[in-house]
Design brief:
mainly beta; Lipocalin; 10-stranded antiparallel beta barrel; 4 helices; 48% strand
């Protein structure tokens, strides 16, 4: 396709000037939901009560699976390549404080470290949890959670793509510099956590189920050969997440946590792919109570 034809197509068809909503299972909506799923503010361990004024600090790292080249064709309803493979991990710091009525408040932050062109911007979460049943053989807790903030990344025009000749097969939209796209990963939900008896070696298995309302959006800011692409794409939907985990309490105040979470996601693509489109990750954490 000639340079003139590409420019005409991009100016009159591609460049968004206003916000527009896409379906949650569209390629764009799925990509936003997939990225939001990697940041879900889920429980790190069994719901444990803290005495009023007592606090606990924790760290957590979770994996972010890589997507294939075909899965990254999400732009323009599934025909344009986007660079979705950024950081392979997601880190979080948590501070929990015991309140009255056997309730625990938690605040979490994501360190603003840039990895592979992606950097969190004022990304934080809040949660309130309370055990409903708490004895040696059975624990059942409920947790309300939310997260607010953004991740900035060069998705529309990656740094690698911007170095290539505009309007070539490798750079068809004419990127001339890395984009400063901002993905909002806002979400809120409720989670139930169930665990059994802690074994003599300090290991306690647990399972959890969470329902989450996602409200993701992407603010596009991409420098192109013919001008600057500016716009906002947003979506909304509800997801479910299933988690299995193990807590290893190796002393009264120190606990290691291991978990794996699965969030089913559907996507309607122009062509069906033999790929796993749901989100599935592994998490490891460490906590200390004071």
């Amino acid at each position: 396709m000639s340079r003139f034809v590409w420019s005409f197509f991009l100016v009159f068809v591609v460049t968004p000037t206003n916000s527009y909503e896409v379906d949650f299972d569209s390629p764009e909506g799925w990509a936003m939901a997939y990225t939001t799923a990697s940041s879900l503010n889920l429980s790190q361990s069994v719901t444990r009560s803290l005495e009023a004024g007592q606090f606990r600090i924790a760290t957590e790292i979770s994996s972010i699976p890589r997507l294939s080249e075909e899965q990254q064709k999400v732009g323009f309803n599934g025909v344009k390549d986007e660079d979705l493979n950024k950081s392979p991990i997601f880190g979080r710091l948590r501070l929990s404080i015991g309140l009255k009525w056997n309730t625990t408040a938690e605040i979490s932050i994501i360190p603003p470290f840039e990895i592979s062109g992606a950097k969190p911007k004022k990304l934080w979460g809040l949660a309130l949890s309370r055990p409903l049943i708490e004895d040696d053989n059975l624990r059942l807790g409920v947790r309300f959670f939310m997260m607010r903030g953004k991740v900035e990344a060069d998705v529309t025009c990656s740094s690698a793509k911007a170095k290539l000749e505009p309007y070539t097969p490798e750079n068809p939209v004419g990127c001339i510099g890395p984009s400063s796209d901002q993905l909002s990963v806002n979400h809120e939900g409720i989670e139930a956590v169930l665990s059994g008896k802690r074994f003599s070696n300090g290991v306690r298995p647990w399972v959890a189920f969470a329902a989450t309302q996602m409200d993701p959006s992407v603010k596009i800011d991409a420098p192109l050969d013919f001008g600057r692409e500016l716009g906002r794409v947003y979506s909304q939907g509800t997801t479910e997440t299933y988690t299995i985990g193990l807590d290893y309490q190796f002393s009264e105040n120190y606990t290691a946590n291991f978990a794996s979470s699965y969030t089913p996601l559907d996507v309607s693509r122009p062509e069906n792919l033999d790929e796993r489109d749901s989100f599935w990750n592994f998490r490891v954490g460490f906590s200390r109570s004071f």
